[in-house]
Amino acid sequence: MRKVIGRLSHAVRTVRASRHAHRFFTPLEQRRIVAAIQEAEHQTSGEIRVHVEGHCEGDAYARARQVFAALGMHRTRQRNGALIYLAVRDRTFAVVGDKGIHAVVPPDFWDTVRDAMADDFRYGRFCKGVCDGVAVIGRHLKAYFPWMPSDKDELPDTVSTGDTGG
């Protein structure tokens, strides 16, 4: 019983701390997300990023577009960057992509990514949800933007945090 209570109190501390963007994912979870990004990008020339903020003023999609630009994601050679954006205190997220992706993916593509993530988010499995979203994006981008030996990693694979987009 004591072990269970110890785990429970740790879980409570973790939930409270997670209201801050930079502590939302544990270091282990961040490594898992980075590994998922790297695995997805190994199969495509597309670039995938994850950004976590504490609060989103207004619409999450509009804010995700701002963060997309602030992170320089529109500067990829093929305009094939995708961003998973989370505003943790507001419990909202958005998935956005660049012009090159919009030109080739089916109209329901972003809904597919969102739905893959939302199921896990409902149960508090945020790391798994993000990793699933990254995997879905990677699988689809592979079909339209396959990895080539001459490809280089154009954007960092880290999880970015903060309200400035950096």
N- to C-terminal distance: 43 Å
Question: Main β-sheet: number of strands, strand sense, barrel status?
Answer: 4 strands, mixed
The count of helical stretches stands at 6
The general outline is globular
Strand order in space, largest sheet: 3-2-1-4
How much helix, percentage-wise, in residues?
40-55%
CATH second-level architecture: Roll
Do you know the CATH topology? Answer: Diaminopimelate Epimerase, Chain A, domain 1
CATH uppermost class: Alpha Beta
Strand content: 5-15%
Question: Mean of the pLDDT scores?
Answer: 83
Structural class: alpha/beta
Topology as a string of helices (H) and strands (E)? HHEHEEHHHE
**Which blocks of ≥5 consecutive residues have pLDDT under 50?**
1-18
User: Any idea how many domains?
Assistant: 1
- Count the E strands: 4
Radius of gyration: 16 Å
How would you characterize the overall build of this protein?
The termini are far apart. The protein is an alpha/beta fold and 166 residues long. Helix 5 runs antiparallel to helix 6. Strand 2 and strand 3 form a beta hairpin. The radius of gyration is 16 Å and the shape is globular. A 4-stranded mixed beta sheet has the order 3-2-1-4, with helices on both faces. The chain has one domain: Diaminopimelate Epimerase, Chain A, domain 1 (Roll), CATH 3.10.310.50. It contains 6 helices and 4 strands; from the N terminus they run H-H-E-H-E-E-H-H-H-E.
Summary of the model, kept short:
The protein is an alpha/beta fold and 166 residues long.
